Amino acid sequence: MTDAVRGFLKSIPAMTGVAPDIDPEAFPDDPVTAFLQWLRAAVDAEVPEPHVVNLSTVDVDGVPDARPLVVKDVDERGWAFSSTKSSRKGSQLTDRSAAAMTFWWPAQVRAVRIRGEVVEAARAESLQDLSSRAPQAQASVDSADWTLWWLQPDRVEFWQGSPDRHHHRIIYTRDQQTEHGQQSQSAWTRHAHRTEVS
Ligand SMILES: Cc1cc2nc3c(=O)[nH]c(=O)nc-3n(C[C@H](O)[C@H](O)[C@H](O)COP(=O)(O)O)c2cc1C
User: Fold this and answer.
1) Looking at this predicted complex, what is its ipTM?
2) Which ligand 1 atom sits nearest the alpha carbon of residue 70?
3) Which fold has domain 17-196?
4) What is the pTM of this model?
């Protein structure tokens, strides 16, 4: 890298937003509720397109790939997104179901990071998603190819930047409980810490 490019990059401000005060102990017990609270706050703070996320996948050789897309639904099943199954992401997900999502909401110095396994939604749900697209967007795809997927989270991290650079990290990890060999309702463990100066 040249000095000029390094200097140019250094001249561009980062983390310029206004970080809201947070109480990590007051976070809800599950990450979906926490996410929906932060999403609502992002919309209220006029963060542009806060439902656009970077989706990372892995190809058959273990090489990562990533692209932005729109999140279509969020509930106790996880985070839903849609595309064509014949796309690169579609074939990567067929080969390797592991994926990650990263949101970045600059106005509030907030990021959310999610990882887990991706499962395909029921056909009816994919078709319902397709029918919600603009007519032109519907016409451009083969309905049999259009697919809704759910990213089922194992780990969700809420990152809140702080002006003193001791940033907050609130991390939810899923407890896998098994009873008599069967997976029961899973619960979440939450822990919070502040980073060293970074
Ligand atoms: C703001 C934004 C939203 C997007 N939303 C979607 C989407 O919901 N679904 C989709 O398939 N591609 C969406 N794209 C295009 C993807 O970024 C990507 O180019 C495309 O899906 C092909 O990715 P792939 O080759 O990895 O499969 C969006 C792009 C941008 C910039």
Assistant:
1) 0.99
2) 8
3) Pnp Oxidase; Chain A (2.30.110)
4) 0.94
